[in-house]
Amino acid sequence: MNRFEISQLIYKAIKDKEDKLKEQFATSSNDIGYFFIDDLLPEEITLRIFNKFPNISQTRQKKSLKEFKHVAAQMDQYDPLLEEVIYAFQEPKVVHLIASICKLEKVYPDSHLYAGGISMMGQGNYLQPHLDNSHDKDRKQWRVLNLLFYITPDWNPKNGGNLELWPNGVKGKPLTIDARFNRLVIMATHKKSWHSVSKVTTDRVRCCVSNYYFSNHPLDNKESFHVTTFRARPGQSFQNQLLKIDAQLRMAVRKVFSKGIVKNPHVYHKPDAKKNPE
Question: Distance of CA 110 to CAs 43, 99, 120, 262, 272, Å?
Answer without folding.
Answer: 27, 14, 20, 20, 16
